[in-house]
Known about the structure:
The protein is of the alpha+beta class. The chain has two domains: 2-31 and 40-81, no CATH class; 91-331, PPM-type phosphatase domain (Phosphatase 2c, domain 1, 4-Layer Sandwich), CATH 3.60.40.10. It contains nine helices and eleven strands. A hairpin with a 2-residue loop joins strand 1 and strand 2.
Amino acid sequence: MFRDRSLVAEGSWARRSAPWALPVGWGVVAVAWRMWCPLAREPGLAVRGATGAVFFGVGMGLVYGARRGLARELARVRAVADATQQVLLRPPPARLDGLTVAAGQLSASRGAAVGGDLYEAVATPYGVRIVIGDVRGHGLAALGAVVAVLGSFREAAHDEPELAGVLRRLDRALGRHLRERAREEHPARAGRAPEHPAAEEFVTLLLLQIRPDGAIDVLDCGHPGPYRIRGRRVEPVPVGDPLPPLGAFPLPADLVPYRAPGLRPGETLVLHTDGAEEARDGRGRFFPLAAVLAGARREPPAAVVRRVHTALLRHTGGRLTDDVALLVLRNDRVRVPAQPAEPGLRRTRPAPSPH
């Protein structure tokens, strides 16, 4: 076992040192040339030219080795970022309790695979429960809040019988995260002002529950409401009076979910973060999300996500200023009409008693 570990360590050391083998070899050649080669001590243009060529080769070798090392390190960082995205914003199942589901995200941070948006959908005994949210800011600074909220939701969605209980669990998890951040970033501990003050961090969030009969319960914490694709129409779904964003103010004592119009078979629900509707083009015009959805009314959820992402990048010229997350659900449950009883099983009314 210890031998295997030593072999692994030796292999990793060899991989790390491989990019530097060429420049080190060139350096050895250059030193040997200057110290032991008789030609290096003789004056003349040819000798100086040969010496310059040797040192030029050493410099090029160093640059080449450094570039290869940086490229490999960048590839490893991207692989870690992709793995992180699969854990945090894992693709939802294609089917959830009769609903077809698709999701996707565009990050505003260049080179980042994960931003400040979050989403998740899970099937529970109480119905399909869905969360979508937006952490203030984007990029790596928002990952802690994303982890806190999503981790709590994935447990609370199955444990809490009421949707209000799920929201309170999310609020407590975010509160613990913000308190830990505040302690870590306190100037007395860090010796400097915090770069991302936890006191200014909050999360807008939309929490939904789609029951087996299609009824929708909603708790909205300052987040944009979803759209419904119904036949040829695209219409906003009412979500009731908004609650304060999580982390900004305490939740009210009485949390009553808003009962939105139900999702009928064949209808599609599109949840999004505010980065979608607030994206602007070079002339300052907002992205027409509803119009783009109208053009995708006959498409499956995965195609809707691709269409919106493509239109967003075309509208902004590939320069997003905020993260964008989409979660699309279509009700593909089959409505079975009531069947008449078979003639042989038809119940007959008993004859009246003669008495």
